[in-house]
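Subject: for your reference before the review

Hello V.,

The reviewers asked for a structural picture of the protein, and I figured it would be easier to keep everything in one thread rather than splitting it across files. Below is the amino acid sequence we used in the manuscript, unchanged from the supplementary table.
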Amino acid sequence: MVNDRQSLDLSAFSPGPGGAAVEWLISDHPIPYPQAVATMEARVADIAAGRAGELVWLLEHPSLYTSGTSGKIADLLDPRFPIFHSGRGGQLTYHGPGQRVAYVMLDLKRRRPDVRAYVASLEEWIIRTLAAFNVRGERREDRVGVWVARPDKGKGHEDKIAAIGVRLRRWVSFHGIAINVEPELEHFQGIIACGVTDPRYGVTSLADLGLTATTADVDIALRQAFEEVLEPQWSGFDVR
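And here is what came back from the structure prediction:
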């Protein structure tokens, strides 16, 4: 179970499909990864069975690595933190303090049962969230996540600012997104993040871009952008 929960102000949220508002929860202390997965799995089962409503859970993890379904052990360069094997899509990534993780549990069967369109909508959600801080996040055809151009680091250089990894069970989504607010970027050096080896592509954060946004600021922007992209009647975005 999630213990210390703090509800976001949902007054601006329109009812979701079927008339039920999406529930939002914030954990105010780092959540161990196995506990988070167990909580998500229980909630997903309840959503699929009609016993619970949809949920967005905002949290941080203690420093750790996770490996998705395409993860390769060779991409673990320095096992300085625990590594957990995850059923989400994707390869290796880092989670830790200063990174806002949003686990998204939505009933896509009632919304739109289209995985690619759902992922595109998560990308759009991130892009609009970043836009609240005047950061231009972009998709890339050959790389997952959301990227920021860094001409200050050289021609063609881009840094990843947000990761996406999803899983579906009975058309209910879980896992989700992670936005780098102010994590220790050096911790990403222990892995080949998401299998990207090209030296032109690195990792950044809002703090690394010179912004002083807090996690609370990001939570507000996430909520507002979610309302635009995924409420009330999500239909997805064109997948290029």
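For the response letter, the relevant points are probably these. Confidence is low (pLDDT under 50) at residues 1-19, 233-240. The longest strand covers residues 158-169.

Happy to draft the paragraph if you're swamped.

O.
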